[in-house]
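Throughout this review, each integer encodes one residue's backbone shape. One record appears below.

===
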Amino acid sequence: MAEDRLACRECHYVNDPDAQTCELCGSSSLTEDWAGYVIITSPEESQIAEEMNVSKPGSYALKVR
């Protein structure tokens, strides 16, 4: 389930619940305190990806605290 996962405070990538570091950027700043997410499949064609500065496909949290 997405709500059990950890979001990276740096890049907003949604990681597995047992992650120690972000799978995408390597940051150890992960949090359970996030809301909403978007799945980006084609970042090069996505306006949302452009606004979020996302260049790799994946699930990203919309709001990270």
Observations:
- The longest helix spans residues 47-52.
